[in-house]
Design brief:
364 residues; alpha+beta; Rossmann fold; OB fold (Dihydrolipoamide Acetyltransferase, E2P); 2 domains; six-stranded mixed β-sheet; five-stranded antiparallel β-sheet; 8 helices; 23% helix; globular
C-alpha cells in the first residue's frame, strides 16, 4: 500500500462522560498521515474510549474527529474506511484463513478473482503464504494475530486501529510480534493508532506516544523524548523504571539532595518545588574514594538487596536520608555491580547529562 492513501486524524476538544465521570476531557490530538501513534495509559485512563471514538463505536458528547478534511463524528463505523484489530482477534471459527481475510472484500462485493489475489497478497505480507486453507483452530496464537491483521488491511483502509492485539500472547512471542508489526506498518504506510498499557511495547513500536491519564493527555512525543524528558511526574513514573527524589532549593537557588548539589539553579524559576527522576540503568557504582565533581551527582548508602534476573541484575540502595535507589546493571564477569551484596556500603553516581528534573507540583 502506498502511504499517499494514508490520512491524518485531527481530534479537537473531544469529550465523553459517563455520568459525572470524564472518560475523555477536551482531548486535542493531531495524528500525522502514515505515522504509528500509540495511546498509552493505565486501565481506565481513556485510551480505549478514544480509540473507539475514532472507530465510531462510541459517540463523544462534544468535539470533532476529522479524517483529512472530512468530519467523522456522525459517520457510522462501516463508512469510515477504517481497519480494526481487536484484542480478541474476533475471527470466524467456521471459516478458513483465506475466508476470514477475504470477508471484508466479500462484504464490499469484490469479484472472486480479484478477492483471491488481494487475500494472497495480504497473507504474503503477514508471512502466512500457503496457509489460506487452514482452519482457525489449526493456528498458533501468533498466526491468528497475523490473520486478524491481514483482514484489517486487506481492503486497503486509510486508517488502521489496534486495541491491545498482542496482550494474549506470551512474552517472547509478543516481543517478536512487536518487531513484525513495526515492519508491516512500514510496508503499508497506513496511519496507525495502537492502544496498549505496556510501556515497553509503546517505546518499541511507536513513532510517537500519547500518554493518557484520567481522560487527558499527559504528554505526546517521540519515545525518546517521553523517556528522557517526561513532562510531569505521572509520565516519569509510568514510563519505565524510575526513582523520584524530592529536591530542596537553598538560599543560593541551587537544587540539592542531602549534601549533594544536583543543579546550580532551577530549570524554570516559576516552579519552586522540583524532583529528580533517576533511571536505574543510568546509575554507576563508583570507587570508594570517589568525590563529588562536575561530572557526577553522588549518592551514598547501603545495599539492602541484590537480585539476579538473567541478562541484568539490580540492587536496592538505601540512602542516608531514608530514600531507596534502584541500580540496574549488566551481569557480565566484569560488571561493576556484579559483586554487590546486602549490607555493603556503596556510592553510586549519576552523570549530570542524565539529570531529569520535574516540577513536583505537576504530578497528575
Amino acid at each position: 500500500m502506498d502511504n499517499t492513501t494514508a490520512l491524518p486524524i485531527s481530534i479537537r476538544s473531544l469529550t465523553k462522560k459517563y455520568g459525572d465521570l470524564f472518560a475523555l476531557k477536551a482531548v486535542d490530538l493531531e495524528i500525522r498521515s502514515g505515522e504509528f501513534l500509540t495511546l498509552l495509559g493505565p486501565s481506565g485512563s481513556g485510551k480505549t474510549t478514544l480509540l473507539m471514538a475514532i472507530a465510531g463505536f462510541n459517540h463523544p458528547d462534544s468535539g470533532s474527529i476529522r479524517f483529512g478534511d472530512a468530519e467523522m463524528v456522525l459517520t457510522p463505523p462501516h463508512k469510515r474506511d477504517v481497519g480494526m484489530v481487536f484484542q480478541s482477534y474476533a475471527l470466524f471459527p467456521h471459516m478458513s484463513v483465506a475466508e476470514n481475510v477475504g470477508f471484508p472484500l466479500k462484504l464490499r462485493g469484490m469479484a472472486v478473482t480479484e478477492r483471491k489475489a488481494r487475500v494472497e497478497e495480504a497473507l504474503d505480507t503477514v508471512q502466512l503464504s500457503g496457509l489460506g486453507k487452514r482452519g482457525i483452530d489449526q493456528l498458533s496464537g501468533g498466526q491468528r494475530q497475523r490473520v486478524a491483521l491481514a483482514r484489517a488491511f486487506v481492503f486497503r483502509p486509510r486508517i488502521l486501529l489496534m486495541d491491545e492485539p498482542l496482550s494474549a500472547l506470551d512474552k517472547k512471542l509478543r516481543e517478536q510480534m512487536q518487531i513484525e508489526l513495526k515492519h508491516i506498518h512500514r510496508q503499508l504506510g497506513v496511519t496507525t493508532v495502537y492502544v496498549t498499557h505496556d510501556q515497553r511495547e509503546a517505546l518499541t513500536m511507536s513513532d510517537r506516544i500519547a500518554v493518557i491519564n484520567h481522560g487527558e493527555l499527559a504528554q505526546v512525543d517521540t519515545p525518546e523524548a517521553i523517556y528522557n524528558k517526561p513532562a510531569n511526574e505521572f509520565v516519569a513514573d509510568f514510563i519505565g523504571e524510575s526513582t523520584m527524589l524530592q529536591l530542596t532549593q537553598d538560599s543560593a537557588g541551587r537544587l540539592t539532595f542531602g549534601d549533594s548539589v544536583v543543579a546550580s539553579e532551577a530549570p524554570d524559576p516559576s516552579h519552586k518545588d522540583w524532583s529528580l527522576v533517576i533511571r536505574p540503568e543510568r546509575l554507576r557504582v563508583l570507587a570508594k574514594d570517589a568525590s563529588a565533581g562536575d561530572r557526577h551527582v553522588i549518592f551514598s548508602g547501603t545495599v539492602t538487596d541484590a537480585v539476579f534476573q538473567g541478562e541484568t541484575a539490580f540492587a536496592l540502595v538505601k540512602l542516608t536520608g531514608g530514600s531507596t535507589l534502584v541500580v540496574r546493571f549488566g551481569t557480565g564477569a566484569v560488571s561493576e555491580g556484579s559483586r554487590l551484596e546486602a549490607g555493603q556500603s556503596v556510592s553510586v553516581g549519576l552523570i549530570r547529562d542524565d539529570l531529569i528534573l520535574i516540577p513536583s507540583d505537576s504530578a497528575q
